[in-house]
Amino acid sequence: MDFKMSTSKRCWINPQKCLRVGEFFCLLMGLAIMVLVVSSYVLNKGRQDLAQPFYSSTARDFSLISNSSKTEIHTEVNQVISQLLRSNEINLLSRRIPDREELEQHEPHLFSVIPGNFLRTSRSPCWYVKYHGNRTGDPYKANGYALRGTFKKMRQGFWDSLQLLGGNRFRLRCLPYFYIIGQPKCGTTDLYDSLLLHPRVRFSAFKEPHWWTRRRFGISSLKEPFHKPLPVEDYLDLFDLAAQEIQNHYDKQQGMENRTADDLLIGEGSASTMWDNSAWSYFYDNITNTEPPVLIQDFIHTFQPNAKFLIMLRDPVERLYSDYLYFAITNKSAEDFHDKVNESLQMFESCLQISSVRACAYNTTFSNIMPVRLQVGLYVMYLSDWFSLFHMNQFLILRLEDHSANITHSMRLVYDFLHLGHLSNKEETSITHNPASNSRRPDDRSLGPMLPQTRQILKDFYHPYNKGLARLLADIAYLWESELIH
Question: What is the CATH number of domain 2-485?
Answer without folding.
Answer: 3.40.50.300
